[in-house]
Specification:
The chain is mainly α. The chain has helices spanning about 25-60, 70-100, 105-135, 170-180, 190-220, 225-299.
Length: about 300
């Protein structure tokens, strides 16, 4: 696997990041649910790949492989991973809204994906901070960098082995010599030209350093906002679960009351049947007695 393998994997995880209303038939909802789950799983795999790439690249910072092209690829890797993380956060929000009316298995799957995503983003963010710190401290003259050109002068040239190394001759001293043309130590025209070139070079290096620091800081992922969005999903689903649990408790209470009422009704019907049977027996006995009295009276 190449060091700069695409963090997007084999699937475009950003296609499922938009927010939309979930309506339509049950089949469409089920299809959308599986699409989101597949997309989020693929994105988690891609972020893991980007994390592994950053880990390998961090070991090459400050070495012969640390060129401008190398750092540009490192920048693009982080940019792609950041976009994947943002789109996956949106997809998790969509999934959370979708499973609100889903079954227990769908809610558990959504919670599992959210937990896996949080873990991989936290690991990626921690490694990204380490890489950013190492980038800043290895931002000196690197093989193949724009700033790594040799100074054309002799002993008077500015020798800079890194951004934090002091030059042999400070710029203000060189400027003072350039202005003080009457001094016994006044430099020759060639030396003045060389000093001006070195000063321009030093200034260009500082400008490049400032630009690269801003780029490194721009690559840093805002994990706080992502975790805040994920916490909102948990809060919303928790409120829905509380509502469902409340409905279940109410249903259980209503069921218990209904069972009790059915038992009371059954007891009442049983007593009613007993009374009816007793009355029927009493009527039959009375009728039999009357019939016997009439029979013997006639006889």
């Amino acid at each position: 696997m190449s060091l700069w393998s695409s963090p997007g994997g084999g699937r475009d995880a950003q296609n499922y990041g938009s927010t939309e209303q979930f309506g339509g038939s049950t089949r469409d909802t089920s299809q959308r649910y599986h699409q989101l789950c597949d997309s989020i799983s693929s994105s988690i795999f891609s972020i893991n790949n980007a994390t592994a790439t950053l880990e390998r690249a961090s070991k090459q910072l400050g070495t012969q492989a640390d060129t401008d092209a190398f750092r540009e690829k490192l920048h693009m890797t982080q940019q792609n991973a950041n976009l994947t993380i943002k789109s996956t956060t949106s997809a998790l929000q969509d999934l959370g809204a979708l499973v609100t009316h889903g079954d227990k298995q769908q809610k558990l799957q959504s919670s599992r994906l959210r937990s896996e995503f949080q873990e991989v983003v936290k690991r990626y963010s921690n490694l990204q901070k380490q890489v950013a710190t190492r980038q800043k401290y290895t931002m000196g003259v690197r093989p193949g960098s724009a700033a790594a050109r040799p100074s054309g002068g002799g002993g008077a040239a500015l020798q800079t082995g890194g951004w934090f190394d002091a030059p042999r001759q400070r710029p203000e001293e060189a400027t003072s010599l350039l202005d003080d043309v009457e001094s016994p130590q006044s430099p020759t025209q060639q030396q003045q030209q060389q000093w001006r070139q070195d000063l321009d070079y030093e200034q260009a290096m500082l400008v490049e350093r400032d630009q690269r620091i801003r780029q490194i800081e721009a690559d840093m992922l805002d994990c706080n906002q992502i975790f805040k969005d994920l916490a909102n999903i948990v809060h919303e689903q928790g409120a829905v679960i509380d509502t469902i649990e409340g409905n279940i408790e109410n249903t259980q209470q209503n069921t218990a009351q209904a069972v009790e009422q059915l038992r009371s009704a059954a007891s009442y019907q049983r007593k009613y049947r007993q009374k009816t049977c007793f009355l029927l027996v009493l009527v039959v006995v009375v009728a039999a007695v009357v019939a016997l009295v009439i029979y013997f009276s006639i006889k």
